[in-house]
Amino acid sequence: MADKFDVIVIGAGPGGYVAAIKAAQLGLNVACVESWSSDEGKQVLGGTCLNVGCIPSKALLEISHKYEEAQHGFAEQGIIANDISIDIAKMMERKTGIVKQLTGGIAGLFKSNGVTSIYGHGKLLANRQVEVTDNDGKTKTYEADNIILATGSRPIEIPPAPKTEGYITDSEGALEFTEVPKRLGVIGAGIIGLELGSVWARLGAEVTLLEAQDTFLPGVDQQIAKATLKEFQKQGLNIVMGGRVTGAEVKRKLVYVSYEDSKGKQELMVDKLIVAVGRRPYTDNLLAADSGVNMDERGFVFVDDHCKTDAPGVWAVGDVVRGQMLAHKASEEGVMVAERIAGHKPQVNYDCIPNVIYTAPEVAWVGKSEEQLKADGVAYKVGTFPFAANGRAMAANSAVGMVKIIADEKTDRILGFHVLGPSASEIVAQGVIAMEFGSSAEDLALTCFAHPTLSESVHEAALAVNGGAIHMANRRKKK
């Protein structure tokens, strides 16, 4: 029967499309349901990440970084480039082109792997049945032995700053500006707020970020976070900590933002306002009352360590379940679930999932911070090495930041790996691999790294854990 599958995946984002492809590769008959539409009314695959998240934002971050470097970094390297200007329309055209290429690529992968793509909104019914509603409101029901929920997340909206076309937008709208705002406000100085704020600051906007929390990047190792804050402030980002927004009103083609901080009531006047206070699971009309799947009080689908829901044969992955809202975490969960459906027994190592902030310099980390280890009562030792002492970073005019490695005091096993600096998103992978294999700091210290490379800073930080760094003075050991 054509309407019966081994696996039906609801959602074609990084968790869903990867799960569908992997399940098909394992010999299962797979369908993937996706409701996202293009402006032309055609199905779009890839979810938030490819369409309005990771990929388009990185395109704008890359372009704006090159523009900013050409304006302010070329001259001291002997490159004279006068009258540099930015063509916003061309920049957006390039971003859109990259997105179309990648989303089209997923459609090609579905075809080559034999995944059936179903266009419409999927809703889980009882007994592993999925009701799909198309654009015309017509419904059709499919069934499968296993269902994977991978519907992702959407930006959180806040009552004090409701979306207002042309003035107040979320992270998705911030990727579509047609011109550089003179003054830009951003509510939230987390990963998304910092990335979007830095894009438009590099292009010439005067940017103010209002962060309700008193601690900058509380989830990041605070030595790294403090150095990051100092660098962003040097770049001209105005970051207000403890700034709680109480209202936003559009008057005379400007947005007046009311907030309170340690000094009392304040007002900020901007041309555009971005609300970037986080994301919430997207479960709108996803579950029938008798589906058997339970959610917690925040709307996340409840799952066990292997992404099983409370309903037999129903799984859930990615932003719709507990844990970090990261595309690569969703993909790994998608692969794990597909493998488990096929009878294998893999699991995701949640202790080794890297985090990245794609600003310039980049910030990346995996494992525990000093603050977390102190709270857990774990004895540890630390090695750091600055990019200011790294020849390749100096040659690239990118000698900001450091590599920091935290190891267990007794066993020397690496517990945390933190990077602020050039190519941090790539360098952190060395920490992920090391930790995945249970590496000690000494293992990295005994490894030969190519010279000159940015990665030598990893080598030196590992040496520094036990007081043996070569290219900087080591802390004297207490006698």
Automatic annotation (TrEMBL):
The active site is at H451. Its main location: cytoplasm. The active site is a redox-active disulfide bond. FAD binds at K58, G122, T151, G152, S153, D319, M325, L326, A327, H328. GO terms for molecular function: dihydrolipoyl dehydrogenase (NADH) activity; flavin adenine dinucleotide binding. Residues 5-334 form the FAD/NAD(P)-binding domain. SUPFAM superfamilies: FAD/NAD(P)-binding domain, FAD/NAD-linked reductases, dimerisation (C-terminal) domain. Its EC number is 1.8.1.4. This is Dihydrolipoyl dehydrogenase. Pfam families: Pyr_redox_2, Pyr_redox_dim. Belongs to the class-I pyridine nucleotide-disulfide oxidoreductase family. NCBIfam families: lipoamide_DH.
